[in-house]
Amino acid sequence: MNVSIKNIRDRDYRCDALILPFCEEDAGDYKSIGPSASSLIRKIFRKEFSGKQHELLLVPSPADFKPERFLLVGIGKRDEVSPEKVRQAGGKAASYAQNLGLRNIALSTEVLSSLKISPAAFLEGALLGTYKFRKYHTENDKKPLSHITILSKASRGLLDEVRSVQVVSSSVLFARDLINTPANDMTPSHLASVARSLRGKNLSVKILEKRDAAKLGMGAYLSVAKGSEEPPKFIILHYRGTTKKPLVLIGKSITFDSGGLSLKPAEGMEKMKYDMAGGAAVLGVFRAVSQLKLPVHLIGILPATENLPGGSATKPGDVIRSIGGKTIEIVNTDAEGRMTLADALGYAQRFRPYAMIDIATLTGACAIALGQGAVAMMGNDKELMDTIRKAGHMTYERVWEMPLFDEYREYIKSDIADLKNTGGRAGSLSTSAYFLKEFAGEIPWVHLDIAGTAWSEKDRPYVPKGAAGIGVRLLTNVIRESI
Ligand code: BES
Ligand code: MN
Ligand code: ZN
Questions:
Q1: Residue 277: its pLDDT value, please?
Q2: What distance in angstroms lies between residue 275's CA and the mean position of ligand 3's atoms?
């Protein structure tokens, strides 16, 4: 998408549609388009269009106007408008325009600036909302929207905001592409080559092969890989924007989760290609952070593997030894994510991080409890959780804390080993997190379960059906706030 900022009057910019955001109270009074066009809009206001959130109306523009059409978009009541509502309006308006075959739209900023809301919020919604995944279609789609112009003075602040929104949004789309790609193509090896493609001046990438992981004693991670012919890849990214202690981001990267010998039911199994959405989010964050050249020190870990029931697959009842020495009884091979994360958390200790955050499509229980509404959060550090909660509000990738009481330890006690890998169905959102906590040690750590939010079951204003790319905006914001 070509994005520009132009200091031109609304009526003088040639485009397929001029987007006019309206509040319910605005009644079509628009200085920037002049009295004749304002009166045209006043005529339809409260009849065909009333400015309610999500309302859209396309009208032809007067003959002496350069924009061919007006696209009115509602942003609701004046005192209830928020950046999120504007972001949603951006997604709605831009995808509507794209579906009509329009190529070139411009945003009038008069109402937004009177509300002191940045047009960057609208742009963000538009960039995220017009996403399509057509890599596997052979028939051509309509030509996509190609130009968005913000009609405004280009202040330093606005330029910075727009650039940042472009980098972060394109990193969300990058993550969505990875997640939507089917597992026959999105193998651990492919994920590793995608990670390598991010290498740059401050960003190095190292891949541990199976034998390296074995030497390091990653029995938990390797127990998951045993049932698959695809070689596992333990991917490590290192971004050095400062020399301070690093933050470690760990992303669950099961490129396909069949459940292993504890096989999942056939229905819906095809969706388990999204079990690497945590890893994709971490890659998206590294892409954004390195393009923005943020002065931070970051380590990313993606313990990538498939979870399949091959002939040498791990069997329920097997006991393995994790990197830190703790032994685990594998009761259910479908609880594989925590096995890979246990060794990733153990491996992360060597970087002496000031904090660790893992992001994972870890439990079905998360999707049941919170649906698309929130990311589940648990951890051992209140301050870090507060920062993440705040970032959740700013990005609207909201998180909700679930309990991590010591009583959950009981659930994962094993008769034969230090721990077992599941505590059964009851409380599994918390018991899975408690399992991870055992491997975080003394380091401030937060776990984010994105099983409910990583995949959108239907089109939403700026999240089309399919991979949501959740976590990229949230974690990039967390990192920014930590500077
Ligand atoms: N990847 C799944 C969790 C999942 C389920 C994500 C549905 C998205 C949608 C995870 O590996 C898993 O299978 N979890 C099991 C654990 C159980 C066997 C203890 C679950 O939550 O059912
Ligand atoms: Mn599983
Ligand atoms: Zn899984």
A1: 99
A2: 5
Q: In this predicted model, what pLDDT tens digit does every residue of 232-275 receive, in sequence order? A: 999 999 999 999 999 999 999 999 999 999 999 999 999 999 99
Q: What is the mean pLDDT of residues 379-407?
A: 98
Instruction: Say whether pLDDT at 147 is over 90.
Output: yes
Q: How far apart are CA 264 and CA 31, in angstroms?
A: 60
- Distance, in Å, from the CA atom of 60 to the CA atom of 182, rounded to the nearest integer, reads 42
- How many angstroms separate the CA atoms of 339 and 316, rounded? 13
Say which residue the tokens 């112009």 belong to: 149
Q: Is 338 a catalytic residue?
A: yes
191 C-alpha to center of ligand 1: Å? Answer: 21
pLDDT of 28 above 80 = no
Neighbours of ion ligand 2 (CB under 5 A): 257, 334, 336
Give the domains, in start order, of the chain with CATH numbers: 2-154 (3.40.220.10), 170-482 (3.40.630.10)
Of residues 90, 12, 8, 13, the one with CA closest to residue 56: 90
226, 338, 398, 473: the catalytic one is 338
Q: What are phi and psi of 378, to 5 degrees?
A: -145, 150
**For ligand 1, what atom is nearest to the CA of residue 336?**
11
CA dist 416 → 175, 319, 324, 432 (Å):
40, 8, 18, 19
- What's the distance, CA 395 to chain centroid? 10
Q: Which of 77, 103, 196, 264 is catalytic?
A: 264
Atom of ligand 1 nearest to the CA of 454: 8
Q: Encode 202-218 in three state secondary structure.
A: CEEEEEECHHHHHHCCC
pLDDT over 90 at 141, yes or no: no
CB of 367 within 8 A of CB of 343?
A: no
Q: How far away, in angstroms, is 427 Cα from ligand 2 center?
A: 16
Is 211 noted as a catalytic residue in this protein?
A: no
For residue 393, what pLDDT is reported?
Answer: 98
Please name the helix (run of DSSP H) or strand (run of DSSP E) that holds residue 19, with its range, or none.
strand 17-22
Residues with CB under 6 Å of ligand 1 are 257, 275, 332, 334-337, 361-365, 367, 422, 428, 451
Tell me the two tokens of residue 395. 């990005």
Cα 192 to Cα 197: distance, rounded to the nearest angstrom: 9
**Mean pLDDT across 327-333:** 98
The Cα–Cα gap between 24 and 46 comes to 9
Rounded to the nearest angstrom, the distance between the alpha carbon of 163 and the centre of ligand 2 is: 38
